[in-house]
Amino acid sequence: MKFDFKLNDCKPFVAPRDVNSNKGDFGYIGILGGCDMYSGAIKLANLSSASIRSGSGVTRLIIPKSIVSSVTPYLLEATVFPLEDTDSHIIFSPANINKALEKIKALAIGMGWGQAEDNEKILEYILNNYSIPVVIDADGLNTLSKMDNKILLNTKCKVILTPHLKEFERLSKISIEKIKKNLIKYAEEYAKTNKVILLLKGHTTIVTDGEETYCIEKGGSGMATAGSGDVLSGIIVGMLGSHEPQVKLVSACAYINGLAGEIAEEKYTDIAMKASDTIECIPEAIKVIRNA
Question: What is the mean pLDDT of residues 195-208?
Answer without folding.
Answer: 96
